[in-house]
Amino acid sequence: TKPKEPELPLFFGWFLLPEEQERVKCATMDFLKTLDTLEAFKGHISEFTGEADKEVDLEQYFQNPVHLHCTTKFCNYGKAEGAKEYAELQVVKDSLTKSDELSVTALIVTPRVFGARVALTETQLKLWPEGEDKVGVTPALLPSVEALPVGSRAHVTLGCAAGVEAVQTGLDLLEILALQKEGKEGTQVEMELGTLTYLSEGRWFLALREPITADTTFSSFSD
Ligand code: 2AM
After folding, report:
1. Does any ligand 1 atom lie closer than 6 A to the CB of residue 129?
2. Which of 11, 154, 184, 185 is most buried, by CB atoms within 10 Å?
3. d(Cα 21, Cα 17) in Å, to the nearest integer?
């Protein structure tokens, strides 16, 4: 019999330390609480509820993920393209169990997901798989995504609407960044945390005045 190949994980990523998770959850929940009380948001409420005058409690609307993290490579136990190559990279092996600080520079809210945009450093970009920004992107959006800086998809999923999978956060983030680049920004609202922008079809982007930083550990995850 052949020696068994080492098994590949579900995904690799930076995992927030427990106390950091609590801090980030609190700060971002405060934003959600404020958002659904804003007149600007209420004006577009039907994009969340399907009805104009219905109210929405965003804290209830989004379900919390178990463990806050920023995925670098979704491997799907080896079934995803490039999974083995990624796991074998020296930089990946050298980074496992190491601490690192992530910087969150923006928050997004859409009818599907609630997420945090992560600004990767040069060093962190070495762990960002080549071509990963484009995976699963609809062909129509590909040219705009290819024009964005590498690593633009990096994020932490903070919540998903019922029936929505976390992979949607990266896709919604890319769509928002592409719309911004085309100058398709709507209403802007100044908030304590930063500038909130509406980007049509229930998409909201909060550019944080001060980044939220969080200590993490780079690791692999298998269910
Ligand atoms: P996320 O990074 O947006 O949170 C397990 O499914 C983890 O891998 C989730 O955190 C998920 O989304 C991430 N992920 C990235 N690409 C994925 C894909 N193509 N399918 C499923 N999950 C993916």
Report:
1. no
2. 154
3. 6
Is the CB of 170 within 6 Å of ligand 1? yes
Q: Name the residue of 68, 74, 77 to mutate for ligand 1: max ligand atoms within 8 A of Cβ.
A: 74
How many alpha carbons fall within 13 Å on the CB side of residue 65? 23
* 192-220 pLDDT tens trace: 999 999 999 999 999 999 999 999 999 99
**pTM score, whole prediction:** 0.96
Q: What is the 3-state secondary structure (H, E, C) of 61-112?
A: HCECCCCCEEEEEECHHHCCCCHHHHHHCHHHHHHCCCEEEEEEEEEEECCC
Task: Burial-class residue 115 by CB neighbours within 10 Å (0-12, 13-18, 19+).
Answer: buried
ipTM: 0.96
